[in-house]
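User: Fold this; tokens only.

Assistant: Input:
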Amino acid sequence: MSKPALLVIDDEKEVLSALNRALRKEFELFLFSDPLAALEFYRDKPIPLVLSDMRMPTMDGATLLGHISEINPSSKRFLLTGHADINLTVAAVNEGKISHYFAKPWDNIELVGELKAAFTVYLSELSTKKLIRVNKEKNAKLSLLNSSMELEINESKKKLDLISTKEAKSFSRLKRTFNTFVGVYANSIALHNEEYSQHNYRIASHARYIAELLDCDKLLSYQIYIAGLLYEAGKIALPQTLLKKPYDQLNHQEQSLFDSFYQIGADLLNDVDELAFVVEIIKHIPEHFDGTGLPEHLSADDIPLGSRILAMVTHFDNLVIGRQHIKPISVIEAKQRLNKMSGSRFEPKLISRYLDMLSALPGSTKVNNLEIPIDLMQLCEGLILTQDVVNNSSSVLLTKGTIIEQSHIDKLVEISNERNEQFSIFIQRAE
């Protein structure tokens, strides 16, 4: 693989030589002591990475990088700055002219690491833009398909007495096509994420159930369900190496890139008119009930109901399946953590409803068709496993579809006590 291209500008030859020694092994370098000459070069060759000194005689680094951003907004721009220039540097960061700054004297390891991480982000953003273009073309076709569905409806309203069985079947096929598209998209997301526990279907079902408990109409409940299936669409644009790490193990820059998937997903789905409300739900999932979240710092009822529900449900499921931390945590601990964020990140009323729903099993008959995570101590006869039960070595102990008997419980308890293992158990109640 070719080295990332990096433009370096510093009017001091000694500094330029030092940067050359520090960076030449990892980057294809283009070195300039004159910022005007560097800018002229950049107009013809807008490479991804630019590192400039702040204080230079003909043009300061912040001004230079401002021009660079106009030529190539996607570029990643960095400043080398002394203590005396810190106020100007902070202003440049706030104005979006630079991605990061390094104080002199710099640390070579930190410098190389930040530049390489920025190039990874740059490539990911390019991939996202390409993916958005491809999906816009696909979504345009889907939108055309659904527009024909609308025309079919309008025509049917005008000619109710003339509608034929053939036309009714055609309309039914169009509806099935839309549902098929959603299912294919949801499965594609799961495959890219290498997620095999049916996470998106599980949280979509939980979210819809809560919406129904709140007496939402069928359309809103369905939209919330679709948003649950597709909320991770933006992860298709993220590298799998990033998705395989627990969120708490990501550094600040990786977390920022990871968190962008909500907006990326909204952009991917935005051109499908029929998904407009779903897009709004996905976009606002990162909002916090107290107004401290993103992207618009909405609070309380200003946040779409579907976003409030899915924020809570996805966080709980991610805790249980081990996406948040190195290891999955127990269901009871996940509930406690969810409850601690009541009133800050999540809506107290929704927390209460959801915890009641989770605690209702295994005795409730109202939630038979929902897949629910439980701890080993809650396991009882008659429950049906919806996921394989595996040990820490990924060996299957009980297979999906098993109807639990007392002997199964006894064996799992024995293994758990002997090896100090915790099992992720997902169940449905037997009919």
